Amino acid sequence: MKGDRSLRTTKKPHWLKMPTMGSRSAGEIRKILSAMDLNTVCNEARCPNRGHCYERGTATFLILGSVCTRNCAYCAIERNIASPPPPDSDEPRRIAEASAAMNLKYVVLTSVTRDDLPDGGAEHFAETVTRIRDRIENVRVEVLTPDFNGSESSLERIAECRPDVFNHNLETVRRLFPELRPIASYSQSLAVLKKFSQLAPDIRTKSGLMVGLGENAGDMERSMEDLRNSGVSLLTIGQYLQPTSRHMPVVRYVEPTEFENWEKMALKMGFTAVASGPLVRSSFHAEVLSERNEH
Description:
By secondary structure, the protein is of the alpha/beta class. The protein has helices at 24-35, 41-44, 50-55, 91-101, 122-135, 152-160, 177-180, 186-199, 217-229, 256-269, 286-291, and strands spanning 39-40, 60-63, 67-68, 78-79, 106-111, 140-144, 165-167, 204-211, 234-239, 273-276. Helix 9 (217-229) packs parallel to helix 10 (256-269).
């Protein structure tokens, strides 16, 4: 991989023009989030789509604080492996209230990784899902979880709360995984996805890959096959963008036609719905992806 770094480019192509950050509706979403003292992965991870999503009246809630116990080389979220703050017991209630204030009918929850917690935060996820369902009638909830260190009991707790979609991102191909995600494990992430699909076969399982980090076509095809063989039916593929100069640089900007080809390949493999494009992110238009080919 380090040899591939010589190929990296710095100039962003025209197809990576970012959505705007303004508009009155986006401002209202920011006010609600601020008033409820809530974190979003949109802000903490410096997502390029956050203005667009806020204008649509949506956001992806980041629970269990804003400090991660992992040190992934691509992620902008603050890290403190030794001592992140304790979970906020009132956070599930505030997220439910914010979801209602935002008139959400599809809520996406994600979290930092909390290796310091015995269950990795699974109970906090479940409590938040329950609070949202109690507050909003007919709401649908997608959870994007960490790997819980492979804990089967944590996955069982998530299955018990019955999310509409269970998401765990593989993020990158096997060959690049050790450098990009040194505390995580490619095999363990696949095992988490497979185990959840076995625990709750009627709940769709989702995952995502970033590209532009030095992977090749063979790497991508093998990772998509690995995900499909692990029970994943919903897939996202998007361009990696370096959040700061301290993070892993972009090796290349992938052409839109290549994203289209990956989408076609993934559908042929048996994924029921795929979102593949330069600005696609795991929770970008999540409700649209979840509605495709529902079963």
